[in-house]
Amino acid sequence: MSTTEAQLPRPPQLATVPEGDVRDRGGPSQPMLIVSDLKKHFAIKGGMLNRTQGHVRAVDGVSFTVLKGETLGVVGESGCGKSTLARLLMHLIPYDEGEVLFDGEAIGGVRGLTMKEFRHAMQMVFQDSYSSLNPRLPVEESIAYGPRVHGTSTAKAKEIARELLTKVGLKPDLFAQRYPHELSGGQKQRVNIARALALEPRLLILDEAVSALDKSVEAQVLNLLRQLKRHFNLTYVFISHDLDVVQYISDRVLVMYLGEIVEIGPVDAIYEHPKHPYTRALLASRLSFDPAERVHEAPLTGDPPNPINPPSGCRFRTRCPMAESV
After folding, report:
1. Domains of the chain
2. What is the pTM for the complete model shown?
């Protein structure tokens, strides 16, 4: 996908999002992210000489865009490559092939964004809210750490930390000096969100950010994320296995299966008129209190194929009810 091909008009749901971000280098029609043919294969080694015996095709040639101001939901079964994709987008692990452009610019090369500029522009909130925080640092220090590393004075960094605690619904006087073990799961995730916002990013990747929370706290954090998105003019990549959560928060949805993208489109189109059999099976597997929507036979049976040696052609064919022998 070329940059020219990706110059898309803003979708109607983003009409209320401000377009005047002073950090916007490419203009409102330039996608925030352009991902082209991204691949990551993990080598499997064994034997006496520790030789490579195969590769796990975790992410295998995915291409998509993330528009400015939108929330792109990413769904799929465990092991489909969602979290690996998140780490590739954040440049936490190197990719084997492909290209990622942020606001039309390459990342980490001679030309384009430096890694320091990229870290300012893009941050990530992880699933495990406890291990994401340093147990030896109080909340205020954890949030202030990023700005301090990037040259902000200690006093100003702490001021930023306290302001962000207020933004995420935690009173600074009560929580600034607490340690992670003194917080509930929802409070820890709010701190992680505040820490991710401390560098004033333009895009947040949320990797299963609410999956470990109980439903009441999950709803609070989801509503908080929507409020913060409007307040800070953010763009989200929201990764989750929970289809209802993704439907609630997303503008568009990307469906992954065995390292590939099988379908991508507006959230209403994906949920009401899914095209791919895998997407239909995923949606049919949701639990419902409506007897008319309940299914009596499992819509998705069996385990995904081995990612070391995936099926030829459509990778879903070994589980697809529409597949036929030829």
Report:
1. 33-127+202-316 (3.40.50.300)
2. 0.86
